[in-house]
Amino acid sequence: MAKVTTSSLLKMKQEGKKFTALTAYDASFAGAFDAEGIEILLVGDSLGMVLQGNEDTLPVTTDEIAYHTRSVRRGIKQSLLIADMPFMSYATPEQAMHNAAILMQAGANMVKLEGGQWLLQTVTMLTERGIPVCAHLGLTPQSVNVFGGFKIQGRDEANAKRILEEAKALQAAGAQLLVLECIPASLAKTITQALTIPVIGIGAGADTDGQILVMHDVLGISSGYIPKFSKNYLAQTGEIRAAVKAFKEEVANGTFPGKEHTFN
Ligand code: KIV
After folding, report:
1. Using a 6 Å cutoff on CB, does residue 180 contact ligand 1?
2. In this structure, is residue 194 part of a structural domain?
3. Each residue of 79-132: pLDDT tens digit?
4. SS (H, E, C) 158-219
5. 57 CA distance to ligand 1 middle (Å)
6. For binding Mg(2+), which residues are annotated in this chain's numbering (predicted)?
7. Predicted structure pTM score
């Protein structure tokens, strides 16, 4: 596989080829995922839950994401590396620029930010200064306390319309990728068709351009609980590299996510 870039992902979308993404937090797993052809690795702030054992992602710091980004970078040959900007690290455009620079210098190719309308100026400022942005809409876990729990978003018409409009506005502001988390499959399909940038889904049905999962869920080690939208590929294959390969194959051939992983 040649080096994955925002241009190659765009080409995949245009050609209707599905791509895969996994979270990664260290060099060894990153190396294995990269070798299996996983196009995108994300140093997610999910590390606050799956590595640190917190109930949510809020305690994670920029320094912690930078530490894991440096480790993952050392394991990568081809995959695109995205680093999550943690809670309150981008509350103002100035904070965003300062902290995004730390993550880019740690080895990220792109940063991911959760939010819609309020982020537009920040997305433009980052992009203009050479920092590619992946936007994130739907169930944005840093807002868990505003949502009153980890709940599916965009179920009613007004919220669905708002998410669609925010997706278009983020693209216009300069975002080059979009993650949609835990929204109805029909809404994710509408957004994916409405945007020219690649859209990555998690709990967003089968019609997004790519799929992302948390590596601990794929390997069935997320404290005994696997979310409805995820799949334990290790149980199916019995070997880590085979599990990653099966995930990639099932996304490419449209088997994953199935109806049982999807919200309607
Ligand atoms: O933090 C994370 O791992 C994420 C993915 C679930 C998309 O944001």
Report:
1. no
2. yes
3. 999 999 999 999 999 999 999 999 999 999 999 999 999 999 999 999 999 999
4. HHHHHHHHHHHHHHHHCCCEEEEECCCHHHHHHHHHHCCCCEEEECCCCCCCEEEECHHHHC
5. 10
6. 45, 84, 114
7. 0.98
